[in-house]
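Task: complex structure prediction.
Instruction: return structure tokens for all chains below.
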Amino acid sequence: NKGKYDHYMQKEIHEQPESLTTTMRGRLIRGGSRKTKTVLLGGLKDHLKTIRRSRRIVFIGCGTSYNAALASRPILEELSGIPVSMEIASDLWDRQGPIYREDTAVFVSQSGETADTLLALDYARENGALCVGITNTVGSSIARKTHCGVHINAGAEIGVASTKAYTSQIVVMVMLALAIGSDTISSQKRREAIIDGLLDLPYKVKEVLKLDEEMKDLAQLLIDEQSLLVFGRGYNYATALEGALKVKEVALMHSEGILAGEMKHGPLALADENLPIAVIATRDACFSKQQSVIQQLHARKGRLIVMCSKGDAASVSSSGSCRAIEVPQVEDCLQPVLNIVPLQLLAYHLTVLRGHNVDQPRNLAKSVTTQ
Ligand code: UD1
Ligand code: F6R
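Output:
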């Protein structure tokens, strides 16, 4: 039932304040003698010791689920101190890459039925790794075959383009990082700030959803373009990849997410006065580097769309042709949850304006159960 919405994708984008609330329900609690806030993930509590002892955490997934894991990698590394590596499921299998008994392999999948991810799961089990699932679908193959895991509880996702599952996956993986790191005294303050940020996140997402009309206007400007580049780095490298994936899969427009640190190693050659380029430049440790990326693109007369923190629009778009999209600033590791929302809205409106099928893009299936 789409309710008041025209498409499931639109409904699922707009219901993110609620889906995120459900994802966190009962999992952020006050506990301990000092009544500090902690994370409780029921499915993992008997396994945290083993995970903390592992030599490496390997994230494995495809498409949007891979991107969600990528967005969560920095905070997991920071709070756990354990090296985290990333694997696209099909590539791990193609290479028969090394997986060891001392590894924790985390399988991320909305449907829980993706063939490539399942194959990688069988492979990791055979190699003796602890296999953890992060899925939206209770009773799915991945939920059943993993040793333990977390349901993201985002509610059924029907649009082929994954939207609300992405933001809920990130929130679960941030909670996973908090749970693994929960015995480290030195990061107590940081963890509490993140928990406060999580509790506030649904309200912040609601605020970002008010950009709907603005993103529709932007879509109107981009309607006849051939291509859109999206530059991000740090926490928002994943936002660049995921934003570009949405634009290409539903709006059927070529789009590429690019790690901004790689700009001078090739992509800069594409910059001119015609190609639209989105740059994610919200405030975090990478902000000054992104400012210099923006200046270099301005110098080549780039047509820029800059996503920045509230109050920064004037400074980021001070020269050249540039549109700014302002979003609230939150804890750095939660910023990707907000930053993807305008790009989801952009992809949605571009699709409608270009006259393509929103909920069933050509050639794609919701759940890819064949290799
Ligand atoms: C569970 C209940 C929830 C109840 C709550 C109350 C289910 C599905 N969940 O939620 O209804 O309100 O307790 O305490 O009954 N698992 C995997 N692989 C996965 C995902 C999950 O093995 O990919 C396992 C978990 O390790 C766990 C079980 O499935 O044993 C349920 O996981 P989850 O729903 O995340 O647990 P709770 O949040 O505790
Ligand atoms: C993108 C999309 C796909 C899926 C991918 C993995 O919007 O829907 O890229 O993310 O097929 O699917 P799951 O998460 O079900 O394993």
